[in-house]
Amino acid sequence: MTDPFARFAERVADAFATLGFPRMAANVVMALTVSEEGRLTSAQLSERLGISPAAVSGAIKYLTTLGMVVSSTVPGTRRHIYRLPDRPWYAASLVRPSVYSALADLVEREAVLLPESEAGARAHEMASFLAFLRDRMPTLLTEWEESRGRG
User: Fold this and answer.
1) Which residues contact 73 (CB under 8 A, 6 or more apart)?
2) Tens digit of pLDDT for each residue in 96-129?
3) 97-111 and 118-147 helices cross at what angle (nearest 10)?
4) What would you report as the CA-atom Rg of the chain, rounded to the nearest whole angstrom?
5) Is the N end or the C end of the chain the one with fewer CB atoms within 10 Å?
6) Within the chain, where are the H helices?
7) Domain boundaries along the sequence of the chain
8) What integer pLDDT is reported at residue 96 of this predicted model?
9) pLDDT tens for residues 33-54?
10) Which CATH class is domain 4-86?
């Protein structure tokens, strides 16, 4: 019988990949999610997932940039250990409004350079939506934490 945690990780990683998330990154974040400790070394990830250390490195770089994984050094060694952030990555994504803000600002700045047109209207709509997300994310996180009894 298949390990239910491995099966869960595989199915969710597949769904993430189907939605456009890089497959290796999806596999790595899900391996960390289902590890009892919530932390693994590069060698452990490589072994568990059957992937090369280079694939682990690339996925970790991507996930670290997104704030979905935190890297630290194993005390007394040069080995790195990767763990999930203290606040789960899916909730942490709500507190990064700067991503939406920067993108909204960029799209708005560039959209004003476009001639009045349907394409320009779509660009302005995109900027407006990104600004909306930027403004709503902190409130959504508060609501999430309150719903979980953590607020």
Assistant:
1) 79, 80, 81
2) 656 677 777 888 888 788 888 888 888 889 888 8
3) 170
4) 19
5) N
6) 4-18, 23-34, 42-49, 53-66, 89-92, 97-111, 118-147
7) 4-86, 92-147
8) 61
9) 999 888 999 999 999 999 999 9
10) mainly alpha
**Distance set, CA 90 to CA 40, 108, 120, 141 (Å):** 19, 27, 32, 10
Q: Specify the residue for token string 């019988």.
A: 1
Tokens 């189907």 sit on residue = 18
Compare 7 and 87 and report the one with higher pLDDT.
7
Q: Which residues contact 145 (CB under 8 A, 6 or more apart)?
A: 91, 151
Residues β-bridged to residue 81: 41, 72
Q: What per-residue confidence (pLDDT) applies to 92?
A: 61
